What we know:
This protein is mostly helical. It contains 16 helices and 2 strands.
Amino acid sequence: MFGQDPWWLVVVKAVFCFAFLMVTVLFAIVWERKVVAWMQLRIGPNRHGPWGLLQSLADGMKLMLKEDVVVRRADKVVYILAPIVAAIPAFMAIAVIPFGPPGNEVSIFGQRTTMQLTDLPIAMLYILAVASVGIYGIVLAGWSSGSTYPLLGGLRSCAQMISYEIAMGAAFASVFLYSGSMSTSEIVAQQDNRWFVVLLPVSFILYIVTMVGETNRAPFDMPESEGDLVGGFNTEYSSIKFAMFMLAEYVNMVTVSAVATTLFLGGWRAPYPISSFWEGANHGWWPMLWFVVKVQLLLFLFIWLRGSLPRVRYDQLMKLGWKVLIPVSVVWLMVVATMRALRNEGYGFTDIALYVAGAIIALLLVSLVVDMLRERRAPAQEEDAAEPAAFDPMAGGFPVPPLPGQQLPPVPRRRSRTERELVGSGGPDTHGDGPRDGSLQGKEASDG
C-alpha cells in the first residue's frame, strides 16, 4: 500500500507532517504556560491573540530577530551544526506514525491514499535509531561551547539518555513479542479488540517514565537545571540557535507522545464507548481526530508532571534508570515472553495466569526469606563493626559533606559569657604574663 503514491502527493503528506508538528508545538507551548499558570493561581499569557494563543508565535519571531552571539572560545563549525543535528532527527520519526487506517481511506485532490507517509517492517527500530541521533546535537553543543557548565549539561544528557533508552527498548520489545511485528501500522492493527495498555500495563508505565527522561523534561530536566548549571548545554546559545534547541525539545515531546499512542493506546482507533455504537468512527478523517486527542492528553501529562513534581537529584535519576527501570523491564520482558510461549503451545489464558501468578508468589516468598535473614544478620554485623575512620571535612582543600557512616568532628565549644568576663577581668583563666589591670605596675616593677 506504500510506494504507490505520486511524487506530488508524497510531498504534500511530508509537508503536512511538518506542519502538524509545528502547529502542535506552538499550541503545546501556550497550553503549558496556561496550565502551569492555572496550577499556580496565575493568569498566564493573555496579550497576543485571543486568550494569548499567539504568544508562542510571537516568542519565536522575537528569538529569530535577536542578535546572534557566537562565543569566542567556541568551535564555530560544530557550534553552529549542533542545533541542526538536534532538531532534524526530531522531525524524522513522525514519517512512520499512522494517522489513520491502512488502505485507500481518504481522498486528497482526487487521489485515494492512506493517512501515513510511509511504513517499514522495522519502523520502530527506525524510530529508536533516529531518536538516538538527536543526543549528538546536545553533546556537541555542550562540548563546542568552550565553557564548563554547558559541557556538564551535555554529559548529563548523554548519560541520562543512555540510561533510559535501555528500559525503553525493553518496553518496545514486549510490544513486539505480543504483536508479532515492528511495523507501526501492524501494531495498531493488532489492537483491534484490546489496547496494549490493558494487556501490557507495565510496559506502558515503563515507557511513560522513560519518555519523560528521554525528552529531558521535569522532573528529569537535569541537563538544563538552572540551579547548578545556569542553563545547561544551551547556556552559550542565543537567537535562532537557541530556538532550534527549544523546538527540538517540544517536537520530541510530540513524537514520543505519538509513539505511545501508536504502541499502547490503539493509535488512530476510537475509544471503546464511541467505537461500540458508531461504525464509522474508524473510517474517513475521523481517526485523525482520535489520534490528535490522545497525543494532546499525553502532552497534558508532561505539563502536569512539570507543575506537580520537583526536580530530582542526579544520583536519584541514575538510580531510577539503572537499578529500577532496567531490572523491572527485563523481568517483565521475560514474563511476556513466557506468556507468549505458553500461548503458542496451546495453553489457555487461565492456565497461563496461574503459572505467572505462581511464579510471582514464589519470587515474593524468596525475597521475604532473604529480607528476614538479612535483618537477623544486621545487628551482629553492627556489633562487630569497627569504629569508623576519622573524617576530614577539608580533604583535598575543599569542604566536603560526610558520606553515610561518617561523622563530622566535634565543633570546638565556645566560651560562655561568664568565662569571657573572667578572662577580661583578670580572673584565674587568664593566660597572660600578668594581670590586665596591673599592667602599669608590672611595667614599673620591671623598670626598677
